[in-house]
Specification:
Elements (H helix, E strand, L loop, with lengths): L2 E4 L6 E4 L9 H14 L1 E4 L6 H9 L13 E2 L2 E8 L2 E2 L2 E2 L20 E10 L2 E2 L2 E2 L3 E5 H6 L3 H7 L3 E4 L1 H11 L9 H6 L3 E4 L1 E3 L6 E3 L6 E4 L4 H15 L5 E4 L6 E5 L3 E5 L10 E8 L13
The structure holds succinic acid (SIN).
Length: about 300
Amino acid sequence: MLEVIPSGKILGATINGLDLAQPLSAADFAAVRDALGAHGVLRFPKQTLTAQQLVDFSARFGKLEINVANAFQEPGLPQIMILSNMLENGKPVGLSDAGQSWHTDMSYSKTIAFANVLYGITIPKRDGKTLGNTEFCNMHAAYDDLPEALKTKLEGKTVLHDFNKFWDMMRREKASKRPPLTEAQRKAKPPVSHPIFLTHPLTGRKVLYANPGYSMRINELPEEESAEILAFLFEHQTKPEYRYAHVWEEGDLMLWEDIGTIHNAVADYAPHEHRYIKRCQVMASEFGEGFAQCEV
Ligand code: SIN
């Protein structure tokens, strides 16, 4: 019997009583979707899943993305990307530094992300303390608390998002060993624009849809004003009062929605402290092909 236990914090709930290796009943699926709208970030503890079962569970929520980075896919299942700092025969088995700064997955995509599904297989610990948390911020709350004058000023405005912004920042500021994106990869994900405020399809409430990782500029404002307002928004949306940290346990399946949250993978573990996670990204295609798209 499914049980939803809210974290009591600004985001987060644990869902007990489901074996995600089995197909979800229609009633359980509806309950999980409701919980996703209510809590944004869900944890399903003690799961044992094959790669195919991870894909099957994720695909219940929408079409799955095949990541443009195109490396470290599960053999035969390109919908799964491996996030790991582990090596096999001296070679990396996964992308070792995915998401290590505040961002929203796929805000750089024409069809944005609805949800992320991460399955934690190996989680680092030091002296009994779990490392490699995933942190989140609540974009419903961030929108609600914006000054009314700014809400009015930004209503109807759009933001340009670029995949390359995060990729380049990781190489420049975090000594990432990722190679520069190839021309073909850049062409596959050209910069796109989305409204700065979205009405969340699960809650019907407005959210701030901008993030430090990918948001480049507010299209309708002069360059300097756009930069000033984005700097304000990036600081505002990551304030401690909007934050929630997920402390991983091996066997956790995490499902979070990307329209009303931003997230950050905390890089507090060393190369010998192993982390191995499998990830699927669910696109927001179920809300209509044009959801969140705009031509600018
Ligand atoms: C991501 O940004 O999807 C990665 C999150 C994590 O590894 O904690």
